[in-house]
Amino acid sequence: MKKLTIRVEDYMYDRLNLTATENKTSVNKIIASVLKQYMDQPKEINFIKEIDNRLNNISKQIDTISKRQYLHFNVSSQHFANHSYLSNADVKEDKCLNEVLGKNKMYHE
Q: N or C: which terminus of the chain has fewer CB atoms within 10 Å of its end residue's CB?
């Protein structure tokens, strides 16, 4: 067993001492019990800051995916337009592409 020295405020020590007296045990055992309970808790559920960080990370990843999808859509549109009869056709003037996009507006708006 290792020895550890901690510093606590007076009011915190008084509360620990009162709890130890009520349970007929020592302050060291109370602190060890509190630390063990804290360490055994699942971190993903009990830490609000950790949850917030993960949600922010997910939000950033969703933004990145959205930007990449938009870029992919633009590249695919130009690719589709370039395979029509005119070489390097303008995306907005391609009748086949406009027909395809007109049918599937919910997918790209």
A: N
CA 40, CA 17: separation in Å to the nearest integer? 23
Phi, psi of 87 (to 5 degrees): -75, 135
Amino acid at 28: N
Return the sign of the alpha-carbon dihedral for residues 14, 16, 19, 23: negative
d(C-alpha 101, C-alpha 93), whole Å: 12
Total residue length of the chain: 109
99 φ, ψ to 5°?
-65, -45
Instruction: Per residue of the chain (109 residues), give pLDDT as tens.
Output: 788 888 888 888 888 898 899 989 999 999 999 889 888 877 666 577 888 888 999 999 999 899 888 878 877 877 776 675 555 556 666 666 666 666 655 544 4
Distance of CA 13 to the CA centre of its chain: 37
Neighbours of 77 (CB within 10 A): 17
